[in-house]
Amino acid sequence: MTKLSVRDYQPEDFLNIELMDYEKKCREGQPIEQWAQIKEKLGPAFTVIDPAGKIVFLCGIHDMWPGVGEIWAVFSPLAKKYPHTWIVAKELLDITFEDYVRLQAALDPVGCPEAIRFDERLGFKAEGLMSRYGFHGEDMIMYALVRDKENG
Questions:
Q1: 150: confidence class by pLDDT, cuts 50, 70, 90
Q2: Which 8-state DSSP code applies to residue 35?
Q3: What pLDDT shows up at residue 149?
Q4: How far is the C-alpha of 11 from the C-alpha of 33, rounded, in Å?
Q5: Is the pLDDT of residue 59 over 60?
């Protein structure tokens, strides 16, 4: 298994990652340069790179309020070359989840079903449909990973 490396996210990573077609469509009409800067400030964020130094994926958590965060991720087409990316994401999630009681993600079931499979593999559960929630008016499904009450 090829070793992927993790480093702290830098705004230029968001601008330089090679995008999958779905992500290209999502970015249409959005203030990408602003988002690149904001993602660094809203909570923990990471860049995962392959041995050649190419970005495989970016991920992080937007802190919403104490104990609650919304996860985000951007994958390059390289992620398909590394089927174990979910393991790296799970390790990052395990490190950061101790600071949260709830992590959530709004996912597009039509445009990006891969994201649903990926988050389910990480332990996220579907909570409900959010009509016209997406940037372009698409319906999204809210997924969440909630720490059980007995374990704090």
A1: low
A2: H
A3: 65
A4: 8
A5: yes
pTM value? Answer: 0.86
The DSSP annotation for 56-114 comes to: EEEEEEEEEETTEEEEEEEE-GGGGG-TTHHHHHHHHHHHHHTT-SEEEEEE-TTT-HH
Give 119-128 pLDDT, tens digit per residue: 999 999 999 9
Residue with tokens 């174990």: 84
Given a contact cutoff of 8 angstroms between Cβ atoms, the answer to whether 74 and 112 are in contact is no
Give the contacts of 32 (CB within 8 A, at least 6 positions apart).
14, 15
For the chain, the residue count is 152
- For CA atoms 36, 14, 145, 133, the dihedral sign is positive
- Rounded CA gap, 108 and 16, in Å? 23
Residue type, 57: F
Strand partners, 68: 65, 102
